[in-house]
Each structure stands twice: as structure tokens, then as C-alpha cells.
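Summary: Need help interpreting a holo structure output

Steps to reproduce:
1. Submit the protein chain below together with the SMILES for calcium ion.
2. Request a joint structure prediction with the ligand placed.
3. Inspect the C-alpha cell block that comes back.

Expected: a single structure record containing both the chain and the bound molecule.
Actual: see attached output.

Input attached:
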Amino acid sequence: MMKNTIKSVIIAGSMFAASANANLITNSSFESDEGLTGSQWGLYDTIDGWYTSSGSKIEIQRNTVTNAQDGNQYVELDSHHADSNSSMSQDLFGLTVGQTYQLDFWYKARTNQPNDNGINVSWGPSPDISPFTYAFNVDGVAPMDWKLVTGFLTATAEDMTLTFSAVGRENTLGGFIDNVSLKAASVPEPASIALLGLGLLGLASRRRKQA
Ligand SMILES: [Ca+2]
Ligand SMILES: [Ca+2]
Ligand SMILES: [Ca+2]
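--- attached output ---
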């Protein structure tokens, strides 16, 4: 009987996680086919899901300076040519106003210079992306491993725009980004909390029996 209770809690928990936490980002790992092969890189006004919202272009690298954190491709937003410090944006539609979303992405600095590899994250009602509404910044210096960066963003409108921008020294070398995810932050529903409570009670009483 107690075993059954615990089992049902686990099933309820995993169902909730699967339905509530879908990644809302299109082309989240920058693996869309841009015709790159081997260790090539390229510059793009738009890629699937993303568009250049300021500066030069979106630079995709395919296992060039480093291996991608996920798949083969990643982005560098201190891209190339003049105005190399660029921004890329993705519009998100039909969000829940007031809902907090968890943003996760992987970051890696390219150079060993401070103030050279910064990435700003901004977030605001779509399509009013200028000026960008600052959310938070990540910065680092090489050598470093890919680092998971997490932030929490609240939707102030149903349609929001997520933007990543290169900041700092503009020299075509900057921070790398890969594997972006935006998911509704998990807030357990009352039913799940009740089940969780039952489960904890069950575990507690089982522990007492063993002691
Ligand atoms: Ca990737
Ligand atoms: Ca570059
Ligand atoms: Ca730079």
C-alpha cells in the first residue's frame, strides 16, 4: 500500500514536468543547416528562429575555435566586419503574463582579456526591442569550460522578445553561446504538493520502521 503511494507520486511528478516545461526556443542549439561542414563558420542576417537585431550579423561556428557544447554549432555575437558586436533576437508568442520563465544557456569566453567576451541578455515586450531592456550580463575570460548560465525572466506581455548581445571590446572575438532553453518555471500545482506531502509522510514512516 505504501509502495503504491510512493509510485503514484513519482508518476504524477514526471507528468507535470513533461507538460509544463517544454523548451519554447526555436533552433535552441543553433544546429539548423546553414550549409556549414567540417570546421567552418559563417555570418547570417537570420537563422531559423533568430534574427540580427543590431550590429553586423549572427556568426555561427561549427566546431571551430572550440567544440560545441551541444551538437556541432554555436554562436559568437562579436561577429565580423564593422559593428561586430551584434545582437540576435527571437520573438516568443502566447506567453502567460506574470509567469516567470527559466532561461538556461551555455556560455564560453574566447579570449583571455577582461571586458571582451561579455553577453547581455535582454527581454521585453515584442516587437518593441529598441532600446533593449536589460535583464542580466555574463562575462568571463579564457581558458574556461562551457558554463551553464541561468536567469529568471517574467513575461510582461503575451508576446516577448529574447535578445542576446555581445558587449565589451569590439574586436570580432567574444563570448560563445549554445544550447538555449526557456521554460515556464516550475511551480507545483496544489494537487502535486498534496501528493508530495503524502509521499514524504510515507518515506518518513518507512524510515521509522527501519530504525
Ligand atoms: Ca549547438
Ligand atoms: Ca567573430
Ligand atoms: Ca570582443
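--- end attachment ---

Reviewer comment: Residues 190-210 form the longest helix (21 residues). Residues 59, 76, 78-80, 172-173 surround calcium ion (ligand 2) (CB under 6 Å).
Status: needs-info
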